[in-house]
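The instructor's notes for this session suggest beginning with a concrete chain rather than abstract definitions. Hand out the sequence below and ask the class to guess, before any prediction is shown, which regions might be ordered.
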Amino acid sequence: MMRTLSFTTAGTLAALAAVAACGPLVQIGGNDKAPPSLLALRATAVPAPGAPPMATTDPRATVLVLVPAVPGTLQTLRLPVTTTDTTIAYLTGATWAEQPNREFQRVLADTIAAKGIPVLDPRQSTAASGRTLSGTLLDFGLDVRNSASAVVRVRFDAALTGPGAAGAKGTPTPFAIRRFDASVPVASQNPTDVAIALNTAANTVAADVAAWIPQP
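After discussion, reveal the predicted structure:
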């Protein structure tokens, strides 16, 4: 019994040592060298600092802002570049701090809240909301198909469900959908300039979405 246990333990330790020599199975932060900086979005319209928290006695006035769905090209921290009608590359040196649809969700939430609409965050709230804003972030990148006038594009297909959603003629409906998009010229294809233009386009779309949602 003792000899068998000793042999098994020795074999196990030898196997573990061999694995350790090959490096860790999981390396936190990935294998690539950390980028010098990360890109992030920032809402330009936010509730005033020091303002009291918004309160409502009517839960139907609240809006739950969900993280938008994205196509495969945006399921990454990289920044897509449309080079032709059928090809996409990624901008060298551009890395988002967080996946773009999550960054955009926070811009949406801050912009809508700045309009005076009570906003619920799905990561923090367990309360049932009156309305839900969901959708798909279809485009969020650089378009260089016309090399003489490169632009960034943001396109968001929004869906608002619940009482008081905005109908086609402004009448309350239980469900409404609308496409929002914006394009902004870029000063250069440097990651910083592209991120600044994308931040402008994202805030333009967010402001249009906030204006579309009826006041409580």
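Then share the key points. The longest strand covers residues 151-166. The two ends are 76 Å apart (CA to CA).
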